Amino acid sequence: MAREKKRRSNGRRSPLAAAALIGIGLLLTGGIYAGASAAMAATDDNSTTTSTLTVEDGQKLFQANCATCHGMDLQGSEAGPSLYGAGELSVHFQVSTGRMPLQAQAPQAPQKPVQFTEEQIDAIGKYVQSTSPGPTFPDDETLDGEGDLANGAELFRINCAMCHNVAGAGGALTEGKYAPNLHTTTPVNMYAAMVTGPQNMPVFNNLNLTVEDKRDIISYLMYNQESPSVGGFTLGSLGPVSEGLFIWVFGIGSLIALTVWITAKSN
């Protein structure tokens, strides 16, 4: 009898077995669910990428996000200018840099995180272009970065450096306005800025700067973006202002510290 009882006790399942089986079941179920969710998300992403928004979609986006200031018919209002003749290139510049929709009234619309996808931006631009035609995108050759760098540098110094700095680092203007730095500006937005004249920037039409001139300036700026600083730390590329401040703080500071140290040693 004692042997029989012992055999029965050895045949019993451990109390942890049920918990282990439940855990394994949950892990399997969770893994299958996660895999299925990822597959569905990938399918949705692919379908979104391949879909194309229409002019009607752009109109809906405009009415929902832009019409409050620019009017339902692009006529403008007290809160925003008319978009008659603005064209899709101006829309791309303002929206792809996050300047629009405007967050708050200020001397200048600042850059901020972009609120729309490239597809949505293109749809809004197509709607504005269809309603009020204006400047449009250049051909690929204008943005290829293969222009004359020397001519581009000279044209930039003559026409742009007084605001944007000779190194494209930007600078302060009057009444709280400023010229942004061009270190991360895309080629298409460089062209858009010259053609549409956003903020305080003048419009450079083909009589001021030919398409080839614009290509040379864009090529020069693209070269600056990709080239390392051969002189070491740029100090913001702000020229004598930052360099003088550096010398004043660290150079004069070091001399004062050395003088105090020598005086303390002599005492």
UniProtKB/TrEMBL annotation:
<dbReference type="InterPro" id="IPR036909">
    <property type="entry name" value="Cyt_c-like_dom_sf"/>
</dbReference>
<dbReference type="InterPro" id="IPR006311">
    <property type="entry name" value="TAT_signal"/>
</dbReference>
<keyword id="KW-0479">Metal-binding</keyword>
<feature type="binding site" description="axial binding residue">
    <location>
        <position position="70"/>
    </location>
    <ligand>
        <name>heme c 1</name>
    </ligand>
</feature>
<feature type="domain" description="Cytochrome c">
    <location>
        <begin position="53"/>
        <end position="132"/>
    </location>
</feature>
<keyword id="KW-0812">Transmembrane</keyword>
<keyword id="KW-0349">Heme</keyword>
<feature type="binding site" description="covalent">
    <location>
        <position position="160"/>
    </location>
    <ligand>
        <name>heme c 2</name>
    </ligand>
</feature>
<keyword id="KW-1003">Cell membrane</keyword>
<keyword id="KW-0249">Electron transport</keyword>
<feature type="transmembrane region" description="Helical">
    <location>
        <begin position="245"/>
        <end position="264"/>
    </location>
</feature>
<dbReference type="GO" id="GO:0005886">
    <property type="term" value="C:plasma membrane"/>
</dbReference>
<keyword id="KW-0679">Respiratory chain</keyword>
<feature type="binding site" description="covalent">
    <location>
        <position position="66"/>
    </location>
    <ligand>
        <name>heme c 1</name>
    </ligand>
</feature>
<feature type="domain" description="Cytochrome c">
    <location>
        <begin position="147"/>
        <end position="225"/>
    </location>
</feature>
<feature type="binding site" description="covalent">
    <location>
        <position position="69"/>
    </location>
    <ligand>
        <name>heme c 1</name>
    </ligand>
</feature>
<dbReference type="GO" id="GO:0008121">
    <property type="term" value="F:quinol-cytochrome-c reductase activity"/>
</dbReference>
<feature type="binding site" description="axial binding residue">
    <location>
        <position position="164"/>
    </location>
    <ligand>
        <name>heme c 2</name>
    </ligand>
</feature>
<keyword id="KW-0677">Repeat</keyword>
<dbReference type="InterPro" id="IPR050597">
    <property type="entry name" value="Cytochrome_c_Oxidase_Subunit"/>
</dbReference>
<keyword id="KW-1133">Transmembrane helix</keyword>
<keyword id="KW-0813">Transport</keyword>
<dbReference type="InterPro" id="IPR009056">
    <property type="entry name" value="Cyt_c-like_dom"/>
</dbReference>
<protein>
    <recommendedName>
        <fullName>Cytochrome bc1 complex cytochrome c subunit</fullName>
        <ecNumber>7.1.1.8</ecNumber>
    </recommendedName>
</protein>
<dbReference type="Pfam" id="PF13442">
    <property type="entry name" value="Cytochrome_CBB3"/>
</dbReference>
<comment type="subunit">
    <text>The cytochrome bc1 complex is composed of a cytochrome b (QcrB), the Rieske iron-sulfur protein (QcrA) and a diheme cytochrome c (QcrC) subunit.</text>
</comment>
<dbReference type="Pfam" id="PF00034">
    <property type="entry name" value="Cytochrom_C"/>
</dbReference>
<keyword id="KW-0408">Iron</keyword>
<dbReference type="GO" id="GO:0005506">
    <property type="term" value="F:iron ion binding"/>
</dbReference>
<keyword id="KW-0472">Membrane</keyword>
<dbReference type="GO" id="GO:0020037">
    <property type="term" value="F:heme binding"/>
</dbReference>
<feature type="binding site" description="covalent">
    <location>
        <position position="163"/>
    </location>
    <ligand>
        <name>heme c 2</name>
    </ligand>
</feature>
<dbReference type="InterPro" id="IPR009152">
    <property type="entry name" value="bc1_cytC-su"/>
</dbReference>
<keyword id="KW-1278">Translocase</keyword>
